[in-house]
Amino acid sequence: MSLLQFFLDIGLGLVLGCLGGLFGIGGGLIGIPLLGLWFGLDQHLAQGTALVMVIPNVLLALWRYHQHRRIDLRQALTMAGTGFCAAWLGAQAANLLDAEHMRLAFCGFLLVLALWNGLRLFLRSAPGGELSRPWPWLVPLGVGSGVLGGLFGVGGAVLATPLLTTLLGASQVVAQGLSLALAAPSAAVSLATYALHGRVDWALGIPLAVGGLLGIGRGVRMAHALPERALGLSFCGFLVLCTLLLLLD
Tens of pLDDT along 117-132? Predict the structure, then answer.
């Protein structure tokens, strides 16, 4: 790798980090299709490499969200614990599936999420706040999000956020903070699984992670500055963009 390429990869990581902080997803969601489109990585290798960036991004973003608006420790630990166990199952399944089928399934998954998020923004009459249900409701949510996060290499946060807003009445910002608590351990176990199967490009993933750490704080500040509906609609558009990038790959 040339020095120029190294710094270009850091720059890409910075942009992905900003987006990850803005939407509470660590940057892997858009990083995966970009790695396939620009670097020619197959779906498995793109998911494993993106996780190298996602883990430090998620940890820093989680801290930043906590600084802006305190995250409930019991809720966060519930999400993290259930997501960790479930992500291992999802990651194991991912390594047994065909890469092309994985890519198409991922596209469908993102489109469903975009539609779901768009509908709940217009169907919900009042802005959300804290969770409207007690913490045990987070157990099945953590399991489902963890499995799909391990399967698609996105840490589960992208699924947990709309579930928390739609089913448990959380605001977009509260949901994104709790989703990051789920994403941290589930992304770690997913990365370990992908690495054991030789599906991680460390030389590319490390500079992306460095850039992501430089950009994540900017994204978190933007998330807390935007109005609730504007942030939600931006999240929907972001999901559609990621789907289009995957289909172009």
Answer: 788 777 665 555 667 6
Alpha carbons within 13 angstroms on the beta-carbon side of residue 56 total 18
Token match 């490390």: residue?
206
Q: What is the full DSSP assignment across the chain? A: --HHHHHHHHHHHHHHHHHHHHHTSTTHHHHHHHHHHHH---HHHHHHHHHHHHHHHHHHHHHHHHHHSPPPHHHHHHHHHHHHHHHHHHHHHHTTS-HHHHHHHHHHHHHHHHHHHHHHHHH--S--BS-SS-GGGHHHHHHHHHHHHHHHTSTTHHHHHHHHHHHS-B-HHHHHHHHHHHHHHHHHHHHHHHHHTT---HHHHHHHHHHHHHHHHHHHHHHHHS-HHHHHHHHHHHHHHHHHHHHH-
Extents of the domains making up the chain:
3-248
Res. 13 pLDDT band, cuts 50 70 90:
very high
